[in-house]
Every structure is written in C-alpha cells, then in structure tokens.
Amino acid sequence: MLVRRMFRARVKSNFALSLLTGSLALILVILSASPSANALPAFARKYGLRCSACHESWPMLNYFGQKFKDNGYQLMNDRDAPIWQNPSYWPVTFRITPIWHRVSTGKVQVDVYSGGTVTGSAVQRITSSGFDLSGLDFHTGGTLEKNFSFYLLPSSDPTGAFHFESVFARLDNVLGSPWLNVKLGKFELDNLLSEKRILTLTGNGGIYQIYHFIPQGDGNIFGQMGDNQLGLEIMGHSYDDRTRYSAALLSSNDGTTQLPYGNAYTGFFTFSQAFDTGRAGVQRVGGYAMVGQAPTTWLTQTGPSGSTVIPGAGIGNKSFSREGFFGQFYFGQHIDLQVVTQHGQDSAWFGQGYGDFIDGIAPNNNTTGNTLPVGAQAPSWNGVLFEPHYVYSPQLIFIGRYETIRMSQQANGALSAAPSPSNLGNISTYTIGYRYNPFMTSRAGFAWHNEYNWLHQDGTSPTGTNLNTSELLLGFDFDF
Amino acid sequence: MRTRLQKWSLAMGAAAVMALPLTSWAQLTTGDIESRIGMESHIGNLTGHAKAAAADYRRYCVGCHGVMGDGNGENFPWLDPKPRNFQLGIYKCRSTPSGTLPTDEDLFDTIARGLDRSNMPQWSTFTKQQRADLVAWVKHFSPRYATEKPGAPIQIPPEPEVTAERIKAGREVFGRVQCWKCHGVTGMADGPSASTLTDDQSRPILAFNFTEGARPKCGETDRDIYRIFMTGLDGTPMPSFADNIKPDEAWDLVFYLRALMSQHSKEKDMAKQLGLKPVDPNAPPGQ
Predict the structure, then answer these.
(1) Residue B144 above 90 pLDDT?
(2) In chain A, what residues touch B56 (CB-CB under 8 Å)?
(3) What CATH number is given to the structural domain containing A312?
(4) What pLDDT score was predicted for residue B78?
(5) Interchain pair B12, A26: CB under 8 A
(6) Among A10, A21, A23, which would you mutate to test the B interface (most chain B Cβ atoms within 10 Å of its Cβ)?
(7) CA-only gyration radius of chain A, Å
(8) Nearest residue in B to A77, CA atom
(9) Rounded CA gap, A439 and A417, in Å?
C-alpha cells in the first residue's frame, strides 16, 4: 500500500515535472519566435510607427509617446497636418475587451427568508463568475492642421449606452513656442501616471484608488483626479519634454455636462522635471495640486412629487484639495517603477455628507440651513501608489501595483457620540498581471491579458468589520 | 489518461526544444552583421556600445528600418521617403566630404534632430548614452565601418556679417552653379530637372522647396545650410559644391537662400529692399 502510494506520488511528481517542463519550453519557443511588437492604431497607421514607439505597453505611454501627446499628437516633422495624409486615412480606433472574470466580495448583506418572507438579514460572501464585455471606446484624434489638434472619445458602458468621455480641441505651440498650448473641452487631467492609459482592467485594479478616494460618508465627488473634467488647460514643455508644466481651470462638476451643480471651479496644477541618467534612462519627478471649491447644498423646488433639487443651483461652496508627488523611475530597459503620493483634505461639510446629489452619496443632506454637528472636522488622508513593471519585451509586460490610503483625520473622529474609528475606510489593494501581445505591427493591437486584484478596506462591511474583495480576469484586449 | 497526458507534455517539450534551433536559424543569415556587434561610437566623453542599443532599436526603430537595418521594415511599403538602409553606410546628413562616412556626432545629431518631411521623428527623448549606443548599433549594420574611417569634417569659416552685396553675390552663385535647375528660380522646387530627380536607388525624390516654410533636413542654422551644399546629400541628386564654390562665396549663397525662405529673416528684408529679382537662367553670366 505504501509502495503504491509512493509510486503514485512519483508518477504525479514526474507528470507535474514534465508538464511544467513542456509548458516552459513552449512559452520559451513562443517568446523567442514572436515577431517584434505593436501600437495604438490611429496614430500608428498615420505615422507608420509601431505601438511600442509610443507605448511602454499599450495603452501606457512611454516618454516618447508623452512627448508626442504634449506636442498635440504631432511628431513635429512637417508632416503632421492632415493635408499630408492619404485621403483614405481615417483617424479612428475602436477598443473593446471580451473577458472572463470572477468577482468575490466578502460580507455582503443578504436577506434571510423564512416561510417565504424576509425575517432578517445576514452577511455572506458573494462570488460570481462568467464571460463579460468591457465598454466600447471609439477614439478619434489627431490634427486638424499643423498645431491644431483634437480628440473625441464617445464611450459606451457594457450595455451600449454612450457618453462623451473626452472631447477637446487644442492650440499647439502658440506663438511658435512649445511652452504654450491651450486645450478646451473635456479631458483627462495631466496625470503622468494616466488612469485612462492604465494597464489593468479589473473593477478595483482598473483604476487608481488614490485618484478617486472619498472618505466614508463624505459627499465630495468633485475631487476625483481620475475622472475626465471639463475645463481649460494651459500646458507647456521644453523641446525635449524634460521640463513640463500644466495649469487647468475646471468646472467643479466631475465632468458632467449641462452645468448640473452650479458656479464653482477647481484648479489643477502639475510640474515635473526629467533627468538624464545614462543607460538607466530618463527619470522624472514632479508634483501636482488640485485645489477647488464645490457646492454642498442646493436650492430646491417643491412640486407634486415633493421637494427636488434645482439643477445648477448649488450653493454653499466649500473647499477641498489633493496634492502630492509623483516619480517615474527607470532601471534600464526592462524595469521601471511609477510612484504617486497624495495628501487629501475635504471641508468638514463634505465630511458630513454634504455635496453631490447626482451620485446620491448622501441625498438627505442636500438641504440648506443645516449646521455642522459639534466636533465635526475636515477629513484628511494620505496615500501612496507603487506600480513596478517588468518589460520583458515590447510585447510582454508584467505589472504589479500596491496602493494604500490611510485616513489621518476622520470627519466624525472628534464627535462625542459615536466617533468614527480612526482607520475607517482605509484601503490597501494589490494588483498583479501581465499583458502579452502576440504580434506587433503599426496597424492593430491585440493583447492577451491576465490579472488578479485584491482590495481590503477597513470597517466598511455591513457589520462594521473589514471588507475584502478580489477579482480574477482573463481577456482579449484589442483595438483596431 | 495520465500516461497519455504525460507523453503529450513530454512530446511538447521535446518538440519545443527541437524547434529552438529553427527559431534561431533565421538569425544565422545575420552572421555578418552579428560579427560587428562589438561596434562602438565615440561622442565627446561618451562611448556607445551597439549591444546596449538592441532593445531600443527593437522598440523604436525596427518597424521602419527593419531587423537587418536594410530599411525594409514592415512599414517600408507605406513610407515616402523610404527608411534609410543602414547596410549601405550612405547618409545624407554629414559634416564630412561627399562619399565618406559620417562622423559619430553626425549620426548622434541626426537621431535627436529627426528628419523633417519624413517619418523619422526627433528622438530627443533618449538619454545621450542611449543615443550613443544607437549610433554604434546603426554603424554595426554596415561593413563599411569595418574597413573605412569617417571622413574629416569640412572646415567652416566664421560666419561673416550679412550685407546687401553678399546677398546679391549669393544670387549670382545660385545662378552660376545652377541651383535653380532643381530648386527653381524662386526656390519653389520647380526647376526644369525637378520632376526627373531620383535617389541612388532610382526612387523619385523631391528637391527642397525653400518657400513652404519647411526646415532643411540636416539642420536649420546658417552653418547647417552651409554644410549641406558643401558636403552634398549622399544618396540623393544633391551633389557637393565644395569644388565649385569658395568658402566665402558659400556664405553668400547661405544668405541668398535665407532670402528665398518663407520664414522671416533679415536677409529676406534686405532682399526685399534691394528689389532682388529671381535669377534669369537665360541671362549671360554675371547678370
């Protein structure tokens, strides 16, 4: 019996070893036989450059791609204007991702039935898995004429409902200088670690948490750096893009059109400097600040269905801020590390749930004339994000990310009655994954994508305990 | 079932190992190029190594210039002008006499400056070391670098003061050496030979149009323009005029060419004040 067990164990071991050997050898052959890498088709088709010229791994930009973007999607080679293009060229790229994913959320409150009626509630883990689709992005952009550029991105959710994710026109190199470029419309903020070009796709890993963090119970949706915003941006850079700055004036409406909130504005400022470090590459460090005001309450109108908010009639503007540093560090041609830090603060009013009415975070607080409870204070927090990459080749990248956000002051931390725990809402999240492009040309892009994300948040389960969520995702990310 | 799977995976492993030589077989034909992988470049205090540029070349350059550096990358059919064939070792932008190899600095500058009116962008985003490595990489494709040394850079005398007389003298040089045959009497690239021009691989090529606001391919300073017509653009119909134009006359021609360009310049203002007319190809010499 023991011998048989040992034999079985050896057979299993041999089987596993040979399967592993075979798989590794197969991967080795695939990697060694792969043709060289690929790019974002609309621009790649126009200029004949591979995706890898502008993207560390599509869609994340590398330094050359950032310079191209900063020049208004121009190579500055006197062939940028559409008059030089073949008339059949149409600067459009479609992107959609069919996926399989498994999402597991711990501690979801569910009803408990007895005899066909709800008798109470319980908390349990919910896990769902299956095949799915991402939304569809319909990118079009480029130049209208030399130094006049544009971008238009109608985007749908997975149901097909469209919205304008990004729409802007830009005057490039005003007065013949790269130090002055003016953009008007709805656009991504000048985050060098761009969330719109993020390499990960899961629900929690597909965004940068510190770009969207809102403390528990806070009503301020306006400080989300990761959301595209409506406004005017002035940016400039040196010829080689080593030095760059931007300053944007934004409507405090989180990118929502038709002025739903009122008269409030936000400023977003960045500055960065890059340094030449020989074969290690070009290192960049910089800082950003987002400082703004947004309404906390709204004028209302009483009708047959009760009191409703009057859109655009926001009042009681209060302040918020996000500021931090970022760094892009390269260690040769294969390894890099992206770092972003953040210190954020909201007015005590936001901390008490005053703020957005559209997202319904705290709809009951949208009434005027209230006063803050004694002990209410401005919530503040600190966060940091580390994202290392191992770029085996332009066609294969391994991605890791660790983000953590820690509350430094709770809005209710000083209330005598039921003060919030100091760690309420703290977030830690890990993401790992890889993207493999089996081919790379200047015509289309295709990536086999595999990713796992795990997110932990303190005290946010229905029972006040910690909440863990995880997601595994596999998909084909393609664009044409 | 296990045994079958085990056999299958062993067979896959064996097949993979057997396939490895096949995947590297294609590289055997690159043996000649590989033999020069130790190529270096020297730019100031920097030493570039070809080997160190392999990844950058693959990421940024191979789509146009090709794996073998022969300019036959996947985009070759769609590009005009065509990508440079590094194997030939023939370059337009040089500081060295016609027919000679360019210096490492010439290639280093070209990578950062890019080539206007082509798909070659300005790769100023590279570090200097990366550029030096890429220069060595570019050189390693050509057997010329194994047997020849770069030419000695031409001497460019200090730039004199611009005067109306010099601009007029430049006009005379423009007519005498028949720049107008390709570039046209007004610099619009519409001379009688313009439509017949081909490069050294018999591909049609355009003369430079001074009037459309474009920057000269090999640099836009006065010294760059001087250098262009005194060294010629190898591989194109643009010859070197080093034997036909004296150094002082060359500066006169630079000033006249500035006057033809659409960009604002003091030469243009002076030519306008002079009421300078385009050269007359049929006029007797000296007029």
Answers:
(1) yes
(2) 333
(3) 2.40.160.10
(4) 83
(5) yes
(6) A21
(7) 25
(8) B116
(9) 61
Residue with tokens 């607080």: A365
Is A41 within a domain? Answer: no
B23 interface with A at CB cutoff 8 Å:
yes
- A261-290 per-position pLDDT tens digit: 889 999 999 999 999 999 999 999 999 999
Give pLDDT tens digits for B42-68: 999 999 999 999 999 999 999 999 999
Confidence class of residue A80 from pLDDT cuts 50, 70 and 90? confident
Chain A CB within 8 Å of residue B121 CB:
yes
Distance of alpha carbon B65 from alpha carbon B50, whole angstroms: 16
Look at chain A and count its residues. 480
Tally of CB atoms within 10 A around A257 = 12
Of residues A194, A232, A437, A209, the one with CA closest to residue A322 = A209
DSSP 8-state code for residue B202: S
d(CA B7, CA B13): 10
Considering only CA atoms, which of B70, B145, B80 is closest in space to residue B107? B145
Tokens matching residue A449: 């994508």
| Residue ranges making up the domain that contains A383 | 89-479
Report residue A346 as tokens. 């909201």
Residue A412 lies in a domain: yes
The residue type found at A390 is Y
Domains of chain B in sequence order: 40-147 (1.10.760.10), 164-274 (1.10.760.10)
pTM score, whole prediction: 0.85
Q: Chain B closest CA to A28's CA: distance in Å?
A: 8
* ipTM of the complex model: 0.81
